[in-house]
Specification:
This protein has helices spanning 7-14, 24-37, 56-70, 101-114, 130-133, 138-145, 150-153, 157-164, 171-187, 199-211, 248-256, 260-270, 275-287, 292-307, 310-330, 354-360, 367-375, 393-396; strands at 20-22, 42-47, 74-79, 124-128, 191-195, 218-222, 335-338, 351-353, 379-381, 384-385, 390-392, 401-404, 407-413. By secondary structure, the chain is of the alpha/beta class. Helices cover 47% and strands 14% of the residues. The chain is built from 18 helices and 13 strands. 36% of the residues are buried. It has a six-stranded mixed β-sheet with strand order 1-6-5-2-3-4, with helices on both faces.
Length: 414
């Protein structure tokens, strides 16, 4: 009989990065039952193959599947080849353009290979919901739809907004959450994973499992991952995505371009580090013993290594550093002299106050103005955005290039 970690140990990893678990107490009970019986839980996440390539936003759920897999549970990567014919209404203010079965089949095959960059090939159950949805008779479909009312469907935010705006809602779109709910019945799921935008669909699985006399699945929702702009949901159509097939150098460089604030969300949702380990890292940054730039380099290396290899991540890091240095050297900007021992410049250890440095370099009229510009993300050092209050001399280098808005200068130390 297999052995599982304790309830507390499992929850430490399972709950990391989760936005909501419904209901949490039921998950604890289900884990305890699994430990007592030696029977792994069945965990499912569904993906409609609407595009041929996955990006890091998609991998948030796949990585959470991996966490369950690492704990010894059965994970199911569900390819929604039948639901893709409808198209998920989530986040849509118009009806999706339907894909052809041929397009879906091609995309599904690429998904199968891509997920093994994260999941264990030997321990992953790949399923297609056409296995059961395509076998439903007209009578079966009518019985399923009879479990819900139109008013329930209109509670869904997207449908409600479109109804109020007198925009069309296709009847076939209302089948989608019912079909997704039936997936949980067919697979006898203990836990279903989805983004916070999937709440309506996920809860329909609980409804239908209750109707069919099954224990209701626990719903675990993860936050939506913002893309490189730090504002909108990661999406290739918005040109803010990092594809899992991006070249190592491209992946590493894109990750280095994200904001320091977004970096912590990426650490939480895109790596296997436990929450306690990330908290220690954040404390080190706050204390000044770890610079945010180094924390971001560590993140870029970890993620690039995950999808390529350690050697590829090392090469990408070296290439980025070289390009970074070359970019700074190539800046054709005026030179200003700044005394290293200027009053108010030195901070603790081998570091200087950025606001004071900007003032001494003539880019800001006062340290106060420079501080405001830092908070507005308007400052770059050696070609990279910088918003921290202090910077180490090592990071500045011999002749750092400072930029505030459109103005730039090269600092030579006197």
């Amino acid at each position: 009989m297999p052995t599982f970690p304790s309830v507390e140990d499992q929850l430490d990893l399972i709950a990391k990065g989760a936005a909501e678990i419904i209901p949490l107490e039921a998950l604890k009970e289900r884990i305890q039952q699994s430990i007592a019986s030696g029977k792994p839980m069945r965990i499912k996440a569904g993906f409609d193959p609407t595009a041929p390539d996955l990006h890091l936003g998609h991998t948030v759920l796949i990585r959470k599947l991996r966490h369950f897999q690492q704990l010894g549970h059965t994970v199911i990567f569900l390819i929604g080849d039948s639901t893709a014919l409808i198209g998920d209404p989530t986040g849509r203010n118009v009806t999706r353009k339907p894909l052809t079965p041929e397009q879906i089949a091609v995309n599904a095959e690429t998904y199968k290979e891509q997920v093994y960059k994260i999941l264990d090939r030997e321990k992953t159950e790949i399923r297609y919901n056409s296995e059961w949805l395509d076998k439903l008779s007209y009578y079966d479909l009518v019985r399923l739809m009879a479990q819900f009312t139109v008013s329930q469907m209109l509670e869904r935010e997207e449908f409600h907004k479109r109804f109020e705006a007198e925009q069309p809602i296709g009847l076939h779109e209302m089948i989608y959450p019912v079909a997704q709910g039936y997936d949980s019945v067919a697979l006898e799921c203990d836990v279903e994973l989805g983004g916070t935008d999937q709440r309506f669909n996920l809860m329909r699985g609980r409804d239908l499992q209750r109707h069919f006399g099954q224990p209701q699945q626990i719903v675990l929702m993860t936050p939506i991952l913002e893309g490189l702009d730090g504002v909108q949901k990661m999406s290739k159509s918005l040109n803010n995505a990092i594809g899992i097939h991006d070249l190592p150098s491209e992946m590493y460089g894109k990750l280095m371009s994200i904001s320091d604030e977004l970096m912590w969300k990426y650490w939480t949702l895109l790596t296997d580090l436990r929450g306690s380990e990330i908290a220690v890292m954040q404390a080190e940054v706050a204390a000044g013993s770890l610079h945010p730039m180094q924390a971001k380099k560590n993140l870029a290396h970890a993620i690039t290594k995950d999808f390529h290899s350690e050697a590829a991540a090392d090469a990408a890091a070296e290439g980025w550093a070289l390009q970074f240095q070359q970019r700074a050297v190539s800046e054709d900007v005026p030179v200003v002299m700044v005394a290293r021992d200027a009053e108010g410049l030195a901070a603790e250890g081998e570091a200087v106050r950025v606001a004071k440095l900007l003032q001494l370099a003539g880019l800001a009229g006062s340290a106060g103005e420079a501080t405001r510009k830092l908070s507005e993300n308007a400052v770059s050092i050696n070609g990279a955005k910088f918003a921290e209050r202090t910077v180490t001399l090592e990071e500045l280098g011999v002749s750092p290039v400072l930029r505030l808005g459109k103005r730039a200068v090269r600092v030579e130390w006197s």
